[in-house]
Amino acid sequence: MSQKFDVVVIGAGPGGYVAAIRAAQLGLKTACIEKYQGKDGKTALGGTCLNVGCIPSKALLDSSYKFHEAQESFNVHGISTGDVKMDVPTMVARKDQIVKNLTGGVSALLKANGVTVFEGHGKLLAGKQVEVTKLDGSTETLAAENVILASGSKPVDIPPAPVDQKVIVDSTGALDFQTVPARLGVIGAGVIGLELGSVWSRLGAEVTVIEAMDKFLPAADEQISKEAFKVLSKQGLKILLGARLTASEIKGEEVTVSFTTAEGEQQLTFDKLIVAVGRRPVTTDLLASDSGVDMDERGFIFVNDQCATSVPGVYAIGDVVRGAMLAHKASEEGVMVAERIAGHKSQMNYDLIPSVIYTHPEIAWVGKTEQALKAEGVEINVGTFPFAASGRAMAANDTAGLVKVIADAKTDRVLGVHVMGPAAAELVQQGAIGMEFGTSAEDLGMMVFSHPTMSEALHEAALAVNGHAIHIANRKKR
User: Fold this and answer.
1) pTM over 0.90, yes/no
2) Which domain CATH number covers 129?
3) Which of 206, 228, 243, 317 is the least crowded, having the fewest Cβ atoms under 10 Å away?
4) Would you say 127 is a known binding-site residue?
5) 153 near 282, Cβ under 8 Å?
6) Which cysteines bridge via disulfide bonds (predicted)?
7) Which residue numbers are catalytic?
């Protein structure tokens, strides 16, 4: 007799485990299946995000930035330290401990909510049956009223640079270097490439980022992208745009990469190469041929706005479906689906999903960019405020970047908030809260912001939309 559940979730990443917890909270008998094993050979919950993504990369980003500050800018504050050294294995061990604490925390949360966890590979069969292939090779079939597919994504491999996790690594391997490479190459100037490049650059690596596209961060607002390119280049990241990788050759402990630019064929030699050209959905052996669930040619599962697949009672969320591959998007889809299964009419606002790049300064945005709005023919007013004019940023010795608020010229409704600078992710979230309630720039301008804070930069940018900024000169209306 197969075990019966109201909900079976395949995958325990930020989409799957959140969906499972919410479903259990709503009184549904829930199971969650996970096959990923951590460094200790035990099943680790939390998916890419907790194990080899968002969390470990932030741990390294914070450690490396503290080292950089101690080395480069403590003297500004009158702190003299002598020779500062970084113990890389200790930094990496701290990162591993944080991961262990959090994955253990997810396990405790699932248990506390009464979710049954199965360790192994989940596969959807016909009739909402789910086959679990356990780690010892034995199988068990679960019967489900509803199934949520949350199998996540993995790094894209590219033929010119096959990953060996020794010299050529993916984003996972780049979190485990035990020494700082003298020369580091990064393929891809996206979120992952810039974050990991920043970590090792701060610790002393000479970093070259090779990006095939001609535009830097094309998804971000152009004004922010240009500022980010300038600031990151000044920090020592050498970013080559319009550079197409054609080949790589490992010789001993180093790798020579060949790429073409407008100037023709070029070669560079590195001690390590990180391949960070994006991620693709993990759908290998996820669906039996008669499961009835449709996928596109790239392996994404077709879903509607409520994450329902072509089979009634089967849903898919997170990186295996359309939209941004972001942990917070996956989590909210998980909540929406669990609530819809329980009979609620939950919806998700896909227009207001914040994006963040955790370089320093951070780069973050929510809503639409100036170039997208102009392309749509929307008349807009724009307000900006530089952190160089912020008292709090000056006190923190953190004045690079700006806040940009875009509002509809006719209604004054805020359509986009874009930030590069200290606490950018938090300021953008404030913008997202306002936008969720349909805020106007005037509304933000009329609110009382505490002084001195980084948040005042958002206040001033909102005021600047209508020429009312106090702490910078306003642009004259033409």
Assistant:
1) yes
2) 3.50.50.60
3) 206
4) no
5) yes
6) 49-54
7) 451
